[in-house]
Amino acid sequence: MSGSNVWSRSRERLRRFPELLAQCADEAAVYGKCVAATTSGKQELRKDLCAKEFEALKTCFTNAAKKKTR
To answer: Which InterPro entries match (predicted)?
Structure first.
């Protein structure tokens, strides 16, 4: 595996990110609202507070990426 090939794949993933985010807008909004709600005031975000919402967003991204590669 060449180093340039790794960078090409990384750039391609980043190039596709806006499209994938658009396909997962609802899940991203739910996750964002969870993060905002759990960090109100001076609270810091702690691990697993929004795990369910993150998993839904991650699943959506994965599925959207799979659809695009077919």
So the answer is: NDUFAF8
